[in-house]
Amino acid sequence: MFDYQGHQAIYYGDRNKYRLPDYHRLDVSVTFGENLRLDRRGKGSWTFSVVNVYGRKNPFSVFYKKDVPNADNNYRHYSLYKLYIIGRPLPTLTYNFSF
Amino acid sequence: MHCRIKHIVRVLPLLAVLASCTQWFDPEINPPANVLAFEGLITNGPGPHYVKISRSAAYGSQAVFEPVSDASVSVRNQYRELIVFAEALPGTYYAPDGFSGVAGDTYTLYVDLPDGSSYRSGEQTLVDGLAANSVEAIFDGVEMPVENHLGQVNFQEVEGVKFFTDIENYRPEVPKVRFETQLYVQYILEELDTNMIPPVVPNDPMLMYCHRKLPLDRRVNVAIPPLEAGAGSSLRHELSFMPATIRFVASMAVWQLRRIDRRAVIIRQFTLNDESYAFYRSLHDQMAAEGRIFDPVAAQLQGNMVRTDKPGALVLGHFEASYYHSATYLLNPEPITRQRLSIRPYENLDHLPVESVCYLEMRPPGWIFF
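Output (structure tokens, whole complex):
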């Protein structure tokens, strides 16, 4: 970080110099098949799944952002934040139909 | 069916956005610190023309930018004329009195440090500038961080005045300008009625007449014209926001603020060359980045300083040569409210000092009487 006209400017490191933390997650799903008995022309199934079972907050991106400005940080302080998507177990229910 | 798939395609990214969150992150990084950073500015105006040299601070440190003293700082134009800067404050070097840049001239900054390292900027052309020719004031409300007496910060809607300008462009290329807005405040202090210093005349305390300037805009204010802006186009640009009720520490020991008397805004406009515009545009993008999922990638700052005795070494900052124009606009007498708001051009107060100027029982130079 360096000072430019009273602003705290950021100089980012070289490209590919740092690695994001490891990305891993566990998804589980159970599928229940069924036959459509009316005319037997199609087949359906219900799938219940849970995405990201252990709720890991995998970073999608990492960025600098100004903190909530106050007198202590002279309205200019930055912190690093990570953006994550679906950071908790997400249950889904799906119906598939094939014919 | 095709239509439904289209809907699903649209909804899926929306779900992703709704399910996204941000969280404070503490990475294991080893950022560069103590890298030399330059900030230089010369204009065709009266100044100050300065060069600041400091060292960078690592992320997570206390952000103390150590100034670099005892450097040899000079600027050379295309005629090889040398302007030597002198250190007035630690790490801050000023051009000699009477110097001002000339539109059309090209300037290069040269710096030699006591440790033997040498630096120079790219050639900076002071381009001929354009002047914003009108300022408009609109009463409005914005969400702002407001600090209470406990030091806690909450975002609240604050009423105040937004200032806009119209940039008329008569050139084939888009205008490249940045703005700084200062608020001129003149105010009156009165002597506190203390037992130690009783007023000479009861209920008639001594008065101190003061004025000072406050920065109105903490952003990097770069005009970003739309792509189609060209010759003959007009760009409406927001300059700054001024809260209707301003607060600043004016009290000094036995003096307390009696009232704000008048306010004026001083618009400082810098017309930039291509390199400087690219730098400020990146700085603006960096400062405005919120990290939202579809935000543009935060910008790297590409300055124009290089180390000549060790090419390729990392050097931060930028040396800028810009065309300068300033204008002052006077607001109506206090109070400033939605019903009572007017603005008009006034004699330029740009020459007045930023710091408080106070005269006892008389008005200081620059005082606005009407």
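Chain B touches chain A through 47 residues (CB under 8 Å).
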